[in-house]
Amino acid sequence: MNDPVVFLDTNFFARLFLDAGSEHERAALGVLEKIVDGTIVAETHPTVLFELAYVLMKIGDISKIAVVTSIRAVLGYTGILIPNRSELIAASALWSTTGAISFADAFHLALTAATEHKHIFSFDKALSNRIEGVVRVESVAELTAAP
Q: How many other CB atoms are there within 10 angstroms of residue 105's CB atom?
């Protein structure tokens, strides 16, 4: 695979999902076609997807399930390089099934699940018991006592 030639910002994806028929959507679709056919390799970052989730839900007034579907569509494009893709896929699955945590928190849990230690230090009780094997701790005593 070639080196990326462009970084895709949140606005790029938002135009694809929110601006049907607009000039911006047509421009974004043109780039996306080149990504799909392998002419262009692009890159983006997990923070772009967090912002996209916010924009689609708050500005686009789109349901969480539709937002998850949109994010999974982005993650499905192999011509877009995205760090931690597998953790983002896991996070989107977790986020889609719970209303108690944000997409970013679901991502943090997925990242923790991918570690050897499986511990996340957080005072947010909503992060407890979300992913099997991941343990939320909120004190040094809990952390040092953990297996």
A: 20
Claim to verify: residue 24 and residue 79 sit in the same structural domain:
yes
Parts of the chain with a pLDDT under 50: none
Q: How far apart are CA 92 and CA 136, in angstroms?
A: 20
CA distances from 79 to 1, 75, 96, 129 (A): 8, 10, 25, 34
Phi, psi of 112 (to 5 degrees): -65, -40
pLDDT at 1: 62
Closest by CA to 103, choosing from 139, 58, 41, is 58
Q: Are residues 61 and 106 in the same domain?
A: no
Residue 43: Cβ-neighbour burial (10 angstroms; 0-12, 13-18, 19+): middle
What does the DSSP 8-state code read for residue 58?
A: I
